[in-house]
Design brief:
Blueprint lengths: L5 E5 L5 E3 L24 H7 L19 H6 L18 E3 L9 E6 L1 H6 L11 H8 L10 E3 L1 E5 L2 E6 L3 H4 L12 E2 H16 L6 E15 L6 E13 L5 H9 L3 H15 L10 H22 L2 E2 L21 E2 L23 H16 L5 H12 L1 H16 L9 H15 L3 H10 L2 H6 L6 H6 L5 H13 L6 H9 L9 H11 L5 H9 L8 H5 L20
Antiparallel strand pairs: 1-2, 1-10, 3-5, 4-9, 6-7, 8-10, 9-10, 11-12
Helix pairs in contact: 6-19, 7-10, 9-10, 9-11, 9-12, 10-11, 13-17, 14-18, 19-20
The chain binds 2-acetamido-2-deoxy-beta-D-glucopyranose (5 copies).
One 2-acetamido-2-deoxy-beta-D-glucopyranose binds next to α15.
Length: 561
């Protein structure tokens, strides 16, 4: 293992000291010469991508250990031990031993990329019974002291006080504070697939190492309509550099535990914001400014791939600005700024188009939480920083969408060109992902001829009465990109506009099979979504880039997880 230790937090164990999460280098299998080839990633390719020497991979789980001392030493622990719901004070964590999933357990999916590339564990270990127990909370990893994190948050706009952390008990998500801390297959498959898919879309995110399902019955009222079903428990082993959230700071500020607030802030800054000096008198201000900037960037990235998180409460927003807490998320299909993935969010508070504003709201709450450790002057400056959020967001959004259209350099009319296109997409309900993808796949010549044979999304778009006006502007704009071959434009666009995203109907079909212990479609999706920019035969056969089937329109996303 490398000597550089980063705190990676498993869903179960709260903290593990292992090698840092490498940023993926740009050598994706999206290069033009890989196009159309068999995209099965060989173990060697993965190893070389992650620069992992196969003989350094752990063959035996007994060699794997984690350390929690960093977090335990840094903060006072809850004096009460035990896994039950309670209000806690003057601490950041409680010790809490997870309740094991009841067997028999099955390994439903595993991410080789995470296991080998991040955890340095040989894939062979996943064959063992022991792995199932470690990864599902039944057996504690050597060195692990399972911790439940105490945090609070603003949920749907209102302060909700202390919130439980079911994750620390169960490696999975939980439904609500009085929940059983269990996740079911449905939500676990969704989280496993989506967090890995987001990573390969280059969006900062928590990762998922494995998905284990059991026969343990879990009662769920999927649509909150009184129909309780028995579903089976499942566990996602997930990791992130840190699981601290805006709500982690809010609860300390709200309850007047200012020393502890300072302690947690110092810890987060020392661990994760290496560019901030610990004796900088403005360090909290610089920290705030970094979070504001990175949150703006993250949300712009969500928008650029049509991702709606679904529950943007302050307790679901990472201080490291990575995507966490995959619940009723959704990828927008027909372009619609009012797209709401959570079917019970009637108000549309967390619609895709509201995300940028919700980010602002959450950053305001972060500022409130920080205020006790800021001087009056720093508070003023922080307010100015907060005001800058909108500008950062718009700038990043503009950049990303320019890239989606293959535009180089800046021209005054670019914003108009983008907004015009989005408006037409809205009017014609064009598919967000495939419209951009096909604009990149089609040659300028074919665009010019208006030949959209076998381009279903462009066919939809071109039904707009102003389409030809927009097209002329676009082609003129492309024409002004001197010395830029049309193939280069296509190549650029195909590297930023995915051909495959995790559409609800795709996940639904995989979940149906997984519930019957057939994990083949989970595996297929996992594989395909690891190269979302590369056209793949199996994906095409499955219709993943085709017009969504009619039954997909009737799907509702359940909220219970
Ligand atoms: C991999 O590691 C082994 C043992 O540490 C070493 O003998 C071998 O030369 C390494 N191989 C490469 C390609 O670095
Ligand atoms: C803002 O965040 C982005 C994304 O992490 C980063 O690339 C950029 O350098 C940051 N800008 C500033 C001024 O910190
Ligand atoms: C967001 O956080 C709340 C409170 O911790 C939790 O109930 C909810 O499950 C989280 N949302 C998701 C999608 O994980
Ligand atoms: C979906 O929205 C409803 C209504 O606002 C909310 O009560 C529920 O908690 C949301 N679902 C999740 C998983 O957060
Ligand atoms: C439209 O484009 C397709 C694919 O390039 C080509 O096969 C077809 O002949 C074109 N049709 C017309 C009418 O030009």
């Amino acid at each position: 293992m490398s000597s550089v230790h980063t705190v990676l937090v498993f869903a179960l164990v709260a903290a593990a000291s292992v090698t840092p999460v490498h940023a993926l280098d740009s050598c994706q299998s999206t290069d033009r010469d890989c196009h159309g080839h068999d995209t099965k990633t060989s173990p060697d390719a993965i190893r070389s991508r992650w620069n992992v020497n196969a003989s350094n991979l752990m063959q035996d789980l007994d060699q794997f250990s984690v350390s929690c001392t960093k977090l335990i030493d840094a903060f006072p622990l809850d004096e009460v031990d035990g896994n039950f719901v309670r209000t806690v004070k003057n601490c950041i964590f409680s010790k809490s031993i997870p309740t094991p999933l009841k067997g028999p357990l099955r390994l439903a999916a595993v991410s080789k990329d995470v296991l080998e590339g991040i955890l340095n564990v040989d894939m062979a270990v996943t064959q063992s019974e022991e792995f199932l127990h470690y990864a599902s909370g039944g057996k504690l990893l050597p060195g692990s002291v399972p911790l439940a994190h105490r945090y609070g948050g603003h949920q749907f706009g209102y302060w909700a006080g202390q919130l439980g952390d079911g994750r620390a008990h169960s490696l999975g998500r939980y439904t609500d504070r009085s929940g059983d801390g269990r996740a079911v297959i449905r939500s676990s498959v969704r989280e496993f697939l989506c967090s890995e898919a987001m990573h390969f879309l280059h969006v900062p995110t928590s990762r998922a190492a494995s998905l284990i399902v059991s026969d343990e019955p879990v009662m769920r009222d999927q649509f909150y309509n009184g129909n309780v079903n028995t579903e089976r428990g499942a566990v996602v082993l997930r990791l992130a550099k840190s699981w601290f959230r805006i709500g982690s700071l809010e609860i300390l500020s709200q309850s007047g535990e200012i020393d502890l607030l300072r302690k947690l802030l110092n810890f987060v800054i020392d661990e994760h914001f290496s560019s901030i000096s610990s004796d900088d008198p403005d360090k909290y201000l610089v920290f705030y400014s970094t979070v504001v900037n990175e949150t703006a960037h993250l949300i712009a990235q969500w928008m650029s791939v049509g991702f709606a998180h679904g529950v943007c409460n302050t307790d679901n927003f990472s201080l490291l600005s990575i995507t966490i807490d995959y619940g009723p998320f959704g990828f927008m299909e027909s372009y619609n700024p009012d797209f709401v993935p959570n079917s019970s969010d009637d108000e549309g508070r967390y619609s895709i188009g509201a995300q940028a504003n919700v980010g602002l709201f959450n950053l305001e709450k972060l500022l409130t939480a920080l205020s006790p450790v800021l001087t009056k002057k720093q508070q003023k400056e922080a307010n100015v920083i907060l005001k800058g959020y909108v500008h950062i967001y718009q700038m990043r959004f503009h950049q990303l969408f320019k890239a989606k259209l293959g535009l180089l350099r800046d021209e005054e009319g670019d914003g108009y060109l983008i907004a015009f296109l989005l408006k037409m997409m809205e009017d014609t309900q064009s598919d967000f992902t495939m419209t951009f993808r096909q604009l990149g796949e089609v040659s300028a010549q074919r665009l010019h001829n208006g030949n959209f044979t076998q381009m279903w999304a462009l066919e939809d778009l071109s039904s707009h009465r102003l389409f030809s006006d927009w097209l002329s502007m676009y082609l003129l704009r492309l024409g002004r990109q001197q010395n830029n071959h049309d193939l280069d434009r296509q190549h650029r666009m195909n590297n930023v506009n995915p051909r495959y995203v995790l559409r609800n109907w795709m996940a639904e079909s995989a979940i149906k099979k997984a519930e019957m212990n057939d994990f083949s479609e989970v595996e297929l999706l996992h594989h395909i979504l690891s190269s979302p920019f590369v056209t793949q035969e199996t994906a095409e056969e499955a219709g993943y880039a085709a017009r969504p089937p009619l039954w997909a329109k009737r799907l509702k996303v359940s909220c219970s997880s």
